[in-house]
UniProtKB/TrEMBL annotation:
Keyword ATP-binding: yes
Catalytic activity: 3'-dephospho-CoA + ATP = ADP + CoA + H(+)
Keywords, alphabetical: ATP-binding, Coenzyme A biosynthesis, Cytoplasm, Kinase, Nucleotide-binding, Transferase
Main location: cytoplasm
GO cellular component, one term: cytoplasm
Organism this protein belongs to: Lentilactobacillus kosonis
Name the UniProt record assigns to this protein: Dephospho-CoA kinase
Gene: coaE
GO molecular function terms attached to this record: ATP binding; dephospho-CoA kinase activity
Amino acid sequence: MTKIIGLTGGIATGKTQVSNYLKSLKIPIIDADLVARDVESKDQAGLAAIIDNFGSDFLDANGELNRRKLGNLVFSSKIELSKLIRVINPFIEAEIYRQIDYYSAKELVVIDAPTLFENGYNSIVDEIVVVYADPTTQLARLMKRNQLSIADATKRIASQWPMTIKQELADIVFYNSGKFELTKQQINDWLKKEKFKE
């Protein structure tokens, strides 16, 4: 029986580092962000649904989704963000289920989803792993990574569920405020405990 783990965290807490490390151990990863990009790409039904609901202003000259423009809209309005989730979620979920089916012979499959709770994917998984970084570290990482002002970075963090709530709902928390070597040790200890690693 395949065990399905939901891997999440806050923006810039280091979830991708954890995901990449698990991938290096040959654990199958279903990346919800990549799935979203696929279903929102040119000529896909997901993109058509976005344009039906938000308008053709969100297409660029090549007929692709203008992600920056849509991002600016949804990250500044909880109503617009909820609307986008409602529109695109059915397409993303269908593809996630298809990939789960594809990996059905594997012992462990990880769904890497930054908005696991916000989008309701937590109902798909057996256990939830949250990657946590303290608020100061998270803000600094996001500003540096995305070249954002304090105001814009704070707005993006605020658009997600608070990390305190995600921690409370998690089965496992990996603390990733410092060196990643320390986080790796936490991951390895967890995999050994779960009998997924010698």
